[in-house]
Design goal:
Blueprint: E1 2-5, E2 8-11, H1 15-28, H2 33-49, H3 60-74, H4 82-91, H5 94-102, H6 110-142, H7 150-154, H8 160-175, H9 182-198, H10 201-216
Antiparallel strand pairs: 1-2
Length: 217
Amino acid sequence: MISTFKNITFSYNDESKTDFSLALLLASLPLPFAFINITFGLFVLSVILDYKRLKFQFNSSLILPILFYLLCALSLLWSINPHDTSKYLSKGLFFIALPLLFLFIPKITKERRTKIFNNYSYLMVIATIFYLFRAFFRYLKTGDTDYFFYHSLVTLDVNAIYVSLFIAFAFINLFVKKSKNWIDFICIPLLFGFLVLLSSKNVIIITLLGVFISFIF
């Protein structure tokens, strides 16, 4: 079953479950760590439910992050603070868990990759609307306009510059999309406006440069 709203597709069955859960995982990266853990669990669940299509395929590029994590784990032998090192190793389990999953997942085609990035972009629009509404309600409560800008917009723990990178990618992805629908023309300025409110000049400049390069290619 595929649920479609005009040209926006959120899919749930077969390989589509995995694709959507992957888009959800990508969209959770600028959120607090708890949300990343939840979406990663959903991604693992979608892979397990799709077990019939799993097949080991060696990929040297996926081995690299696994080796990186093993090197980090090996650093426990010479770490001056093994307790803190082990604490951060637990957070870095994604370096070994995600590549292992992708070694068994069927290769993601160009068409599927496009759907994943489009779904990711729409999810980032939802996150944008959430942050704007939260800033608006905080403004009504305190009268402080700072809630609409920089770290105050997304909180310092999440970090405005970090979030800007994910918003920029979502914006560029929809901007270069060949077949745009009416909702895309709403999402594109919304994402760019949110990027401006996040006030990361370097990210804004790089984003505009990316848009310019997309016109060339």
